[in-house]
Amino acid sequence: MIDGQTDVAMLADMARGRMREKIVRLRHALTGHLTAHDRLLLRKLLDQVDFLDGKICRFESEIRERSKPFQEAMQLWSTIPGINWLSAATLLAEIGPNMQQFPSAGHLASWAGLCPGNNESGGKRKSGKLRLGNPWLRSLLCQAAWAASRTKKTYLAAQFHRLAARRGGKQANIAVAHTILVIAYHILKENRPYQGLGGDYFDRIRAQSLKRYYVRRLQGLGLEVTLAPAEFRQK
């Protein structure tokens, strides 16, 4: 468009990935008239994007270079769902590679501001705001929690969806962020990669209650239910 291309069909056909499902809508959106002034402004905007992309690449290169002495810690952290190399580098910058400075994972979570406040009165526990802590670390972990919630068949995704159904997405995100930090603490302290419990972990620990629940549901539909162990046959 900046170079003067006005064929709407050709422009829409340049879409890639999921945008190809919207080619018809793209054709409608691209129908119009661009003046020389419009093209000038678009070129300036693209130049600004290229300039910022270049600065980001240079910063990332510098981060990679300075984090080379700590590659082992970063590789261990990168085994956690939702944590990529840049997230691992940020963890390294905020908490360091030595977990001995924190007596426990709870101390680290409290320092990061991922522990709820203690608000109890008359023997009743009320909701408490998060403690003040490291805002950059907490922001990183919340972003990692959102990423982990979108992974397939993982414990962290199962934890998020289980809590989101009862408490809402924001509280579920904070809980998963807390879990990620606890995992990161133990991974580095024990020097071993992350081993997930699996996306069906909560179903496994609640197997009996789930059986009773589904039996009651089926009986409520007027069906007679008989439970028997599944037979495994070799093909």
Give the SSE string.
HHHHHHEEHHHHH
DSSP summary, beta strand count: 2
Largest sheet: 2 strands, antiparallel
Rg over CA atoms: 25 Å
Number of helices: 11
Strand order of the largest sheet: 1-2
Terminal CA distance reads 59 Å
Number of folding domains? 3
Helix content: 55-70%
By helix and strand content, what is the structural category?
Answer: mainly alpha
Structural write-up:
By secondary structure, the chain is an all-alpha fold. The protein has three domains: 8-62; 70-119 and 126-195, no CATH class; 199-226. Helices cover 59% and strands 3% of the residues. It has eleven helices and two strands. Strands 1-2 form a two-stranded antiparallel ribbon. The chain is flat. The chain starts with 7 loop residues before the first helix and ends in a 15-residue tail after the last helix.
Map the helices and strands.
Layout lengths: L7 H5 L10 H8 L5 H31 L4 H7 L7 H11 L9 H8 L6 E3 L2 E3 L8 H15 L5 H13 L1 H22 L10 H5 L1 H14 L15
Antiparallel strand pairs: 1-2
Characterize this entry briefly.
The chain is mostly helical.
Features:
mainly alpha; 235 residues; 59% helix; flat; single chain; 3% strand; 11 helices; 2 strands; two-stranded antiparallel ribbon; 3 domains
